[in-house]
Design the sequence.
C-alpha cells in the first residue's frame, strides 16, 4: 500500500532538484518583473480596471474549480464597492459571494499581517456563512474533528483519492505550518507560495473549502513575494484551465517521500502561463479606457452604459435585441431604440455573419486596430 507524504519520518522536510527548478524560476521571476514594471507605467484608471478584472476572475475561477459557480457581475460589484472603485451597473451581491470576496481581499490587501488560526477561521466562516455546505452541515470556523477523505464516484462505488492526516494531528500540523509560513526564509518567496499551497492541501484542516483557502493563502504569499496588495494576474484562472493536470500532480506527489520537484515545476509553469495571459488583460483594459476616452462626451443612458461595459468585459454569446431587453430589464421596443441609437452613433454595427435574427457587435478602435 502506498504511503502518503506525511507518513514518512522526514515529513515535512521538502526536497527538490535545484537544477530542474532554478531555470524555470528565473523565467517566472523575469516575466513577473516585466509585467509588474509595465503595469507601473499604466494610468491610474487602467490599473484599477485591470485590478478589478483580475480580482473578479480570481474569485470566480477559484470557486469554479470546486464546482461552485458564482455570478460574475455580483463578484465584480462586490469587489468594486469594497475597493471604492466606481463601476457602472452595480448589482446586489449574494451573501455567499460577499464571503468569498471578503476572504480573498483580506488575504491580499492585508498580506503583511500574520496568518494565524483566527484569521483562517474567519476565512472559513466567510465561505460558509450558513454553516452548511450544500446539503451537509459542517464544522465552521474551526479545524475539523473528523476524518477527511477526498473521494469521487457514484454512491456505493466511491474511490478514495486521498486520506488526510488524522484529526488528532491537525492542530499540531497547522501550528508547524503557520510558524513556517510566517517566518523569514532563504527560500525564494515564489517557491514558498508553491510549497505553502501543497503543504496546506496535504493537511486538509477543514471540513470543506480547503482548496479555496489554499489558493487564497497562495495569493497572500505571492503578494508578499511582490510586496504589493495588487493582484494583476489570476493563478486560480490558470489552475482552472489546467484543472485535470493540477489534480494529477497533487495525487502523484502526495505519495512522494518528500521530493516535490514535480509539483514545483508544474506550479511555476502554471504561474508563467498566468503571467503571460495578463498581457491580454492589460490590452483589454487599455482598449476599454481608450473607448470611454473617445466617448466621454457621447450622450448615453444607463442601459447603454451597462451593456457597453459588458461588451467591453466578458460577454457570452451574441448580442441580440432580446438579450439586451433581458439584461437591462426593459421592453423589446426600448431595447431596439437603444441599439438603433448606438448604431447611429457608430458605436455598434450589425454582425456580418447574419442568421435568423439580427445580432450586433461593438465598433472599437485601439491604435490602428479595429474590431
Sequence:
Amino acid at each position: 500500500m502506498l504511503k502518503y507524504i506525511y507518513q514518512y519520518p522526514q515529513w515535512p522536510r521538502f526536497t527538490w532538484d535545484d537544477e530542474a527548478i532554478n531555470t524555470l524560476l528565473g523565467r517566472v521571476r523575469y516575466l513577473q518583473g516585466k509585467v509588474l514594471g509595465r503595469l507601473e507605467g499604466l494610468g491610474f484608471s487602467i490599473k484599477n480596471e485591470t485590478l478589478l478584472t483580475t480580482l473578479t476572475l480570481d474569485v470566480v475561477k477559484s470557486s469554479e474549480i470546486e464546482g461552485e459557480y458564482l455570478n460574475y457581475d455580483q463578484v465584480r460589484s462586490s469587489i468594486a464597492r469594497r475597493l471604492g472603485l466606481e463601476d457602472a451597473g452595480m448589482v446586489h451581491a449574494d451573501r455567499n459571494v460577499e464571503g468569498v470576496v471578503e476572504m480573498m481581499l483580506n488575504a491580499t490587501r492585508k498580506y503583511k499581517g500574520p496568518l494565524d488560526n483566527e484569521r483562517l477561521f474567519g476565512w472559513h466562516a466567510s465561505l460558509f456563512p450558513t454553516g452548511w455546505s450544500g446539503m451537509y452541515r459542517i464544522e465552521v470556523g474551526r479545524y475539523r474533528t473528523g476524518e477527511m477523505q477526498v473521494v469521487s464516484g457514484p454512491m456505493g462505488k466511491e474511490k478514495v483519492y486521498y486520506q488526510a492526516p488524522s484529526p488528532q494531528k491537525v492542530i499540531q500540523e497547522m501550528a508547524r505550518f503557520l510558524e513556517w509560513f510566517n517566518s523569514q526564509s532563504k527560500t525564494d518567496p515564489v517557491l514558498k507560495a508553491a510549497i505553502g499551497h501543497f503543504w496546506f492541501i496535504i493537511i486538509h484542516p477543514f471540513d470543506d473549502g480547503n482548496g479555496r483557502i489554499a489558493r487564497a493563502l497562495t495569493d497572500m504569499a505571492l503578494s508578499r513575494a511582490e510586496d504589493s496588495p495588487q493582484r494583476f494576474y489570476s493563478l486560480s484562472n490558470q489552475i482552472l484551465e489546467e484543472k485535470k493536470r493540477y489534480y494529477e500532480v497533487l495525487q502523484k506527489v502526495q505519495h512522494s517521500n518528500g521530493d516535490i520537484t514535480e509539483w514545483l515545476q508544474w506550479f511555476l509553469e502554471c504561474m508563467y502561463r498566468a503571467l503571460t495571459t495578463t498581457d491580454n488583460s492589460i490590452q483589454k483594459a487599455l482598449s476599454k479606457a481608450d473607448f470611454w476616452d473617445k466617448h466621454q462626451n457621447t450622450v448615453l443612458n444607463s442601459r447603454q452604459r451597462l451593456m457597453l461595459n459588458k461588451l467591453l468585459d466578458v460577454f457570452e454569446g451574441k448580442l441580440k435585441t432580446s438579450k439586451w431587453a433581458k439584461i437591462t430589464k426593459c421592453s423589446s421596443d426600448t431595447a431596439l431604440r437603444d441599439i438603433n441609437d448606438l448604431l447611429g452613433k457608430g458605436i455598434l454595427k450589425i454582425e456580418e455573419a447574419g442568421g435568423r435574427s439580427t445580432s450586433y457587435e461593438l465598433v472599437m478602435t485601439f491604435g490602428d486596430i479595429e474590431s
